């Protein structure tokens, strides 16, 4: 279940980053990058075992 959730958020983040870059919308691209960073950070914590 968590894997599907992670993939879903990853796809949304990538779409946000691409869409923000295409339309040159700063907040949309930044939001995607921030969410992507949070996702990677939480996955690392899950992997370590916190």
UniProtKB/TrEMBL annotation:
Keywords: Membrane, Transmembrane, Transmembrane helix. It comes from the Bacteria. This is Putative membrane protein. The chain crosses the membrane at residues 30-48. It comes from Clostridium bornimense. The lineage of its organism: Bacteria, Bacillati, Bacillota, Clostridia, Eubacteriales.
């Amino acid at each position: 279940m968590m894997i599907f959730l992670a993939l879903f958020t990853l796809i949304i983040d990538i779409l946000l980053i691409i869409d923000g870059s295409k339309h040159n919308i700063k907040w949309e691209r930044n939001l995607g990058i921030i969410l992507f960073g949070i996702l990677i950070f939480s996955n690392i914590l899950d992997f370590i075992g916190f």
